[in-house]
Target: YqcI/YcgG family protein
Amino acid sequence: MNPENDEALAEAFRSFVRSPEFPCVGAKSALAKDQMRILVARDLTSAWDDLRILPELVALAQGYKADPVLFQTLVVIFEGPEVLDEPAFERALWDRVQSLSDKDALWLESERDERVSDDPDDPHFSLSFGGEAFFVVGLHPGAARPARRFSRPALVFNLHDQFEQLRAQNRYEKLRSAILDRDVALAGSINPMLARHGEASEAAQYSGRLVEANWECPYAGRGAGAERGQRDAA
Model:
């Protein structure tokens, strides 16, 4: 671990979010309110830092339950791999969240957030850590969408209940429209993968890749990845 390098990557991400062109006003709010936690890990394709990442996710979930303040987020920046095409990044993203989900379910024995589904084909799907649902935004240098194009691979974990809070306050649609307008201004076109929760599974949105109509999410469910690995090894 190199604290100076970690802080340099964290500051690079803050600068990325502060950029006037960056479209996600929710991320800008989290940063401005000092509610953006940033963790620098080593390798997206390795489980080496799972036991550093998972406690941060659980702490965010527990803190939010105790005080459900809007615009809290966890950003995990990985030092590498620095070169990944979109399919490779997508595979690495799902390997990582599968591993984290398995550990949350089997090692920590955390309850799943019953307000969402664990089935990636379900329109109400979300990941769950520490009993709270999360939506994941993947970024990497090879992303086609400029808003997802950061210098290193990164996973941004957003609490799902925050979207429900915004809906209850009649703020969600206005915020969503602002983000979409800014994204079109940056990219020149609307992101075709965007869909509201409950209309289509959010799983297809995580990696930022334009997935095929017959795309199948590799996520097997909480704990199922470990069971699948045991079967493969048998």
Q: What stands out?
A: The chain has a mean pLDDT of 93. The chain is about 40% helix and 15% strand.
